[in-house]
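Workshop exercise sheet. Pairs work together: one partner reads the sequence aloud, the other fills in the structure field after running the prediction. Swap roles for the next sheet.
Pair: D.N. / O.F.
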Amino acid sequence: MNRTRYGAAGLRRRADLRRSRNKLTTAIAMAVLLSATAPAAAQDDISAGSFGVGLQLGYPGNGLSFNYFTTEAHSVQAGLSVWSHSDSASIATRADYLFWQAPIASPEFADVLWYFGPGASLFLSSLDRKGKDKDELGVGFEFPVGIGFRFVKVPIDLNLEAVPIFGFLGNDAFNIGLAIAGVLDARYYF
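Structure field:
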């Protein structure tokens, strides 16, 4: 590259874009690793199957949702989401260990259960404020609490959860924050 052709600002911008791409690649690799490392514990016979794949909708992003039941009362949930606003684009991954409680209702078409459990999230955000790019990497500790519908005649579940997150964010400056996310998961079980 010729410094006079692109200028110093252009070279810095290219270097910043390269760093952003590397961080995004790292975040995606971690998401794949989290979703692929569900424990291979002995499992009960679960009629709908033990591994579910589907969609996750909500705040802060939309994406893929995975759930693996290690027993009928315990599962490992993972998600990969992306979102975009007018001044930012982000990617996030999460993993939770869920404790499913006894059904609170069992209408003819589904079992209604509630669940809770500890988890963690990792996200990368690329901001553009007034022409200045800024990448931020964050980690959060979360505790989802939700209600789930396990349908009887089809191997599908539908879950609505509130997710309090205690997060650490920043590259240049270190910020601590508390947020509450809301997620709707729909998954098909194999």
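Discussion prompt: The first strand starts at residue 51 and ends at 59. What would you look at next?
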